[in-house]
Structure formats: C-alpha cells, structure tokens
Amino acid sequence: MKPWEANIRKTVPYVPGEQPDKPRMIKLNTNENPYPPAPGVAESLYTFDAGNLRKYPDPAAGGLVRALAKRYRVKTEQVFAGVGSDDVLAMAFLTFFNSEKPVLFPDITYSFYEVWADVFRIPFEKVPLDERFRIRSRDYARENGGIIFPNPNAPTGEAESLALVEDILKQNRDVIVIVDEAYIDFGGQSALALLQDYDNLLVVQTFSKSRSLAGMRIGYAIGSAELIGYLNDVKYSFNSYTLSQPAIAAGMAALVDESYFKETIHKIVTTRERVKGEFQKLGFASGTSQSNFLFVTHPHIPAKELFEALKEHNIYVRYFDKPRIDNYLRITIGTDEEMDALLYFLRDYISRRDAGM
Ligand SMILES: *Cc1c(COP(=O)(O)O)cnc(C)c1O
User: Fold this and answer.
1) Ligand 1 mean position to 332 CA, how many Å?
2) CA angle, corner 104, sides to 189 and 193, nearest 5?
3) d(CA 262, CA 254)
4) Does the CB atom of residue 214 touch ligand 1 within 6 A?
5) DSSP 8-class letter at 191
6) Cα–chain center distance at 266
7) What span, in angstroms and rounded, lies between the C-alpha atoms of 275 and 333?
8) CA of 150 to the centre of ligand 1 (A)
9) Does the global pTM surpass 0.85?
10) What is the distance between the alpha carbons of residues 316 and 320, in angstroms, rounded to a whole number?
C-alpha cells in the first residue's frame, strides 16, 4: 500500500449502461428516446453565436428556470436546474441528507442512490419492495434521515399512486422526501400536485428521456422556495457555472414545443403497450410499466442467456446481476421498427430453443 493510500476517498462507482457505437445496432439499454429532440433544439444550436462562448453562462440558468417555472406553474424561486438530473440529485443528497439517521430508498431502484450515499458518507437503509415490486408506504413510517424513490420506479417501471406518495409525505414531515420523476411523462401522476401542501417535498425531473436530450445534460428540481434556496447554497459552494450556454438555449427550445413533446410521448406509449402484449404472447411476464421501458422475465429462459443472445445479435438491452432481479431484462422502448426486430429475434430464438435446436 502506498503511503498516501489511506487519504484517498475510495468508492465503488455507478456503472452506466454501455454506449457501444456499432453501425447496425439496436440500442435499448439506457432508456434513451428513439426520436430526435424538438426541431427548435437544432435551430437553437445552428443559430447559436459561438462568439458568446468567451463569456461564462448565466450561473442561475435564468432563461431556462423561468421557462420551467412557467411550464409547471410555480414561482422561479421554486426551480433549480442542473447538468442532468444526476447532478441535481447529487446536490440534493449533499444538501438534504445530512443526518446521522439512515436515508431510506427501495432495495430495487436506481443504483446511483447507493453510490451517492456512499461517496458522501450518508448512512442509508434499503427498504424491500413487496413481491410485486411495489412500494409499501407503511415501510417508510419509521425514523430516518430522508427518503428518496423514483416514481415510476426504475428498473421496474412500476408507478405508485399520488395517494401513496402523499402517505409517505404525511408520515415524514420532519425530513426531506425526494421523488425522482425521470419517467413521469410516460405515465403515473406527478407529485408536483402535492407541492402546495408539503414544503419538505422535492420533485426531480429530466430532459434526458421524455425530451430526447440525454446528450445535452439538463435536469431540474422543483420544491418550496426554501428548499431550492438551500440547494442553491450548496451548488454555489461547489460549481457555479453548471449548465452551458448551448444547453440553456436547447432546453428552452425543447420546452416551448409542447405539441412535439406530446406527440413523441404518445408514440412511445403506444409502442410500449403494443410490445407489452407481444411479450406476453411470447410467455414473458412484464408488470405494468408506466415508463419508456419494459421489465420482463421469462418463465424458463434465463434472462442472462437472452441478454447474451441479443447482444450477439447487436441488440443491446440491460441486465442487472443483482438479488431479486437477476432473471429480468430492462428493455427500452425504441421505434416500432426496432421493437419489431427485437420481437422477431426473440420469437425465432424461443421457438428454436423450445424445439431443442
Ligand atoms: C435516467 C435517470 C436519471 C438521470 O438522468 P439524467 O440523464 O442525469 O437526467 C435519474 N434517475 C433515474 C431513475 C433515471 O432513470
């Protein structure tokens, strides 16, 4: 061991899905949107004046924050923008989870939560989902240093009702409750409706999935002005200029095109429901996903085997070698053509396998 090793902050990092770049691959492994962002986004980039880049961006991303406040009918003081919701969530962990008591989150959830808790030395406890992978609100009625869960959850896709989210808030008025709504535009009810009654609620959303801007890195949080104030204090103690000028412009352009947004969501949800039925016909169990992915398991073919076979065929899906979910695949909803190619492969694979070929 080197003498300086003892002073290193060692941590086990989050492992993002692969980003392979092959000419004819079908990429359904990181919940990216298969459709391009709103046309105004490209326009905002073509017309962007590169000369402005000599200046720092607005540290508050004011244009985007005002546009978000208008879109979600809240005050600008209630909105915080960051470099993807991962940045927003990391800042929120640092700001709001500052207790000796454990932060609670589901055992099956976005695996980054555990990584942030670990790197920031925040004690945490994982709360098991029930056997149908659903959150039980009574499990969160105990002493804790804060709560976070995604709704819809990832990687299960299950959405919980607003009533359940409110139950958790009611039982936890003395800690901050963060609802990660990365997938809310694809289904489920947003906790934004509860903001007026709960000043300890923080809702986090992203442009990465429903607005097709994963590559631009834009996320935001909406909460009481007080919470957003504390979040800003930590952000400005860390890095003031987070969102770049092009990201602010692109985000504003995406946000104004409501009809394109609705149309894209509609296409993905329609494909999701059709593909859900096709997976059932193939014998898979698929849950009631309300997100832009399906979480499926087959009664006799191991998920790992299917994952490898699909990959061999240049179709990338996500497999998690983790307790309770190691026989599931998380499959992003792509275009109809992509999903048909996936289904075609699976039909063929399963029938050959069943025939012992
Ligand atoms: C994708 C995702 C995020 C992060 O998205 P960003 O690209 O950083 O905005 C956060 N939470 C969950 C549950 C996600 O699936």
Assistant:
1) 14
2) 20
3) 12
4) yes
5) G
6) 19
7) 8
8) 9
9) yes
10) 13
Give which of 261, 221, 206, 243 is closest to 40, Cα–Cα.
Answer: 261
Peptide bond connecting 155 to the previous residue in cis, omega within 30 degrees of 0? yes
CA distances from 14 to 10, 52, 117 (A): 13, 35, 11
Q: What is the DSSP string of 303-321?
A: HHHHHHHHHHTTEE-EE--
Cβ atoms 167, 199 nearer than 8 A: no
> Tens place of pLDDT for every residue, the chain, 357 residues?
899 999 999 998 988 888 888 888 999 999 999 999 999 999 999 999 999 999 999 999 999 999 999 999 999 999 999 999 999 999 999 999 999 999 999 999 999 999 999 999 999 999 999 999 999 999 999 999 999 999 999 999 999 999 999 999 999 999 999 999 999 999 999 999 999 999 999 999 999 999 999 999 999 999 999 999 999 999 999 999 999 999 999 999 999 999 999 999 999 999 999 999 999 999 999 999 999 999 999 999 999 999 999 999 999 999 999 999 999 999 999 999 999 999 999 999 999 999 987
Q: How many Å lie between the centroid of ligand 1 and the Cα of residue 217? A: 10
